[in-house]
Write a structure and sequence with these properties.
The protein is mostly helical and about 130 residues long. It is about 70% helix and about 5% strand. The chain has 4 helices and 2 strands; from the N terminus they run H-E-E-H-H-H. It has a two-stranded antiparallel sheet. Helix 2 crosses helix 4. The termini are far apart.
């Protein structure tokens, strides 16, 4: 990727992610534009959209959207709090698991909302 394109991508993601070198995946020697946890959130969200038709409806029948989001955020909050207080250091594994879980569960909440939004804004067929 050219230097200017990479710079634009890093700049785009900079308000959303700290982009620390030590907390980022690298691909062919190039640092991802977001950290490991953010990468896991985005990938988890993608997987959650795919899994929603078979799993999401079962989960949303049992739990409220607020409960799902609270459960999704809890793991990340604990991981970050433990790291900040020195109880334990976050690892690549904890960042992937907590970020991925957050992404998947967030998709289970947002997918039906986006479906409703798109459906309500679709032009009438007649």
């Amino acid at each position: 990727m050219s230097g200017s394109a990479a710079s634009a991508i890093y700049l785009f993601f900079s308000p959303m992610c700290h982009q620390w070198e030590s907390h980022s995946f690298h691909f062919f020697g190039e640092k991802f534009p977001v950290c490991i946890r953010c990468s896991a959130i985005y990938f988890g969200f993608f997987l959650g959209i795919i899994a929603y038709p078979s799993l999401g409806r079962r989960i949303e029948r049992r739990f409220t959207a607020r409960g799902i989001l609270a459960a999704a955020a809890a793991g990340m909050i604990v991981d970050v709090a433990f790291s900040m207080t020195g109880v334990s250091e976050s690892s690549t594994l904890t960042r992937v698991v907590t970020g991925g879980t957050f992404g998947i569960l967030t998709a289970f909440v947002l997918t039906p909302l986006l479906g409703e939004l798109i459906g309500s804004n679709a032009p009438d067929a007649g």
